[in-house]
Amino acid sequence: MTAKGHVSLHGIHKTFGTFEALKGIDLDIQPVEFFALLGPSGSGKTTTLRILAGLEAPDDGRIMIDGNDVTGTQPGERDVAMVFQNYALYPHMTLAANIGFPLKMDGVAKNKIPDLVRQAAARVKIDHLLHRRPGQLSGGQQQRCALARAIVRQPRLFLLDEPLSNLDAQLRLETRVELKKLQRSLDVTTVYVTHDQEEAMTIADRMAVFLDGDIVQVGTPDEVFNRPLSVHVAAFIGSPPMNLFAGQLEQGAVKVGDYEIKLPKSPDHAAGDVTVGVRPSHIRLSDHGLPARLYLSENLGESMLLNFLVDDQLVKVRLPEVRRFAENETTALSFEPEHIHLFDQKTGLRIGS
Amino acid sequence: MFATERNFALLMVAPGLLVLLLTTTFPLVFLLWNSFHTVNLAMPFLDGFAGLDNYARMMADSRFWHALQLTAIYTFSSVALQLFIGLGLALLVMQISAGQWLFRIVAILPIVLAPVVVGLFWRTIMLAPEFGIIDFIFRILGLGQVNWLGSPTPALISVIIIHTWQWTPFAFLVLLASLAALPPEVFEAAKIDKAGAFQRFRYITLPLIRPAVVIVVIMRSMIALSAFAAIFAATGGGPGTATEILNLYAYKTSFVELNFGYGSALAVSLLVITICVSGLLFRLRTAHRG
Amino acid sequence: MARSASKAAAARRNGFLIAAASLLLLIWVFPLIWAVIVSLKSESEVLAYPPRVIFEPTFQNYSDALFGGVSILPSLVTSLIVSTSTTILTIIIAVPAAYAFARLRLRGKKWLGFYTLATQMVPPVGLVIPYFLILNKIGWLDTFQGMVTVYLTFSLPFAIWLLVSYMEDIPREMEEAAFLDKANRFQTLWHIILPQVRGGIAVTVIFIFLNAWNEFLFAVQLGGNTVRPVTVAMFNFVSVEQTLWAKLSAAALVAMLPMIIIGIAAQKQIVKGLTVGAVKGGGRL
Hints:
Chain A has 353 residues and is of the alpha+beta class. Chain A is 23% helix and 35% strand.
């Protein structure tokens, strides 16, 4: 069986009036991959999804699915299914009619539809609700109905536009797991738009990080988290995000203020001003290092988030255990060389590996 | 996909636009054309191009100016009355906790009646001398007898009252709906900020319902400018020309005197006035935005 | 103490409000009630002075109005035919146009929309004059097709604008979902949009029917012996039978009964239509 659902975008441009939503993006999504498009609002991720679906036409560029150019085709001709952020269930139809609608439009024989609908509904555990209308359902059930409507005709590509954002926090965590399981069992290429980096990290095989109409990094969650390619990605990924300090790169070491960190091997970069990034969980409290004053401590129950002031800069530190701290207490912050991320101060690009 | 969308859209609007073009725009062009001609069904042998003759006659026609004046009085006073009574009643009814539905039901009644029937009711059982109920009420209250529809000023007042009676419910219902749609938190916040009832009305309610007020004024003005059936049924424009607004004058010139050329010119003038008034009111509406 | 005093004040205030509002209520409802009373009197009773509230009611006027020498039954049928045809024709033409205005990309849509709105503002007298000449020329005076054509001039622009505002309320994703579900544009309109604007269509139907039923100027001038709607019949009744008020009241109430029933039954929808129309700048009642 040849895997279906290979998607590639080439040089996609899209402007809305004077707003440049996409500045020429390229993307390659492998069959059966769970691929997340991650970025803040207005970064172009949803536009990309809608262009993939055929709901928007790109100004420039090509969209290929399984080797066919689908750039000029109608949404219905692409064999893709989509779950909308607000689900877009047809309010005047029962769940059964909602889920069966794509089959009906596709010309599936009438007597086959009820069985297919029941199977799809069973997969998302709403087969007991088929006679209800969307208005009589909870948000979670509506979301499942939208999923069922998408999977019922076994598309080669599954598009999800922030499908969990309208659910409450508890339900979101549960659904996230189920969604991942569902995708695995269906073996269908899935493109998933979200602004929630934690969601993208946990659910996706690979992801593309969008910023201002450009893709700034593509990679597995591990790669994006551990090797952010630019200071912008570093500042966007992680909760709370990476701390960034102004520093100087010298021979074999980097200095932040008076605190010098020896580097195991010299990066291939000229000495000078750099941005030094350290994740909150990689900072330790110790006797030597950056002098810091505690501004506010937040007790998260099983861990602590400490807000320090280093000079006038707010630095976040995540502590794995809970302790009492007095405000204005002074201490020093230190970090290990292997946990440091270096970025060129001018271009914002990553230095070294 | 979007080329076909445009074609599909064109297919969808084409019948509607074609019908509108044929049924509204073409007759209007014909009206304009007629206004530059002599078209007299009583004396068809005189028909022909007349240039601006009809308009020149209009400028010199005291009956036209009188009709224009009446139109202004009729429109302005009936719209003002509808707005004030309608708004007052809407504010009143908002205060009443139960039974609002009764007011809504009653208010619907005048709106759904045919204006011609309203005019006939008022002309006969309400305002007729001797036997009309209003006449009776005036007599037992010792206010004397008024020949409501038979003498000039009372007749004008009567047709204004009739129009106001029928259409105030419209203003009332629209304003009541927009009052009911206001978020109560705003008023609670204002109360906490120590705003009195009048201040709440002046600084909170009025600005918030202004769009609805402006729309009511626009719509009611348009309707008042083209009001016909109720006046026609109640007074026929009389006594004499005391209630002959421009609308009725254009109608009578065309269909009673059969002078369609001049009638067309009068109708064109009404059209121009309607366009100007609506343009002015719409500008007011956008000027107050933002 | 203070509390009960303020409670009493509130009750007094509420009582005053109700009294004031009820008075205005009475002013509106009175002419109709009075018409009902008059319609139940004999003609001589109508002319009695002072008018009596206690009298022996008779339904003679109603049976006269319906089945007597000047029966309004044929006019009721005429009104029904004209109003129904106008309504059906308008909806058929207006629904697709409204969909295009509300949803589709179309060159010059803004101007076309403005044009539609503007046609609604034309004073009827500006149309009745040219129409008389036009219909006369093509032999459509006093015909059903002529009357319905003329009625389209007010029903169509209004219907388009009312329907546009209802269609704009439907989330765009609904259609996009349908496109992805392989529905074509026509199927989307039919299966997705139309079922969701049923309420809006109902309101539009009520408004058009009401306006067509109540129309007078076009009817009196462009109709005649063949096409004589009830509004004209009422008017003629008074012109011919100057003082038969009881019969007039009975006939008028019968003629208006369908509208009153519609008005009370669909009160909520009518108010919604008025306000939707009000916000969008439509509405001709």
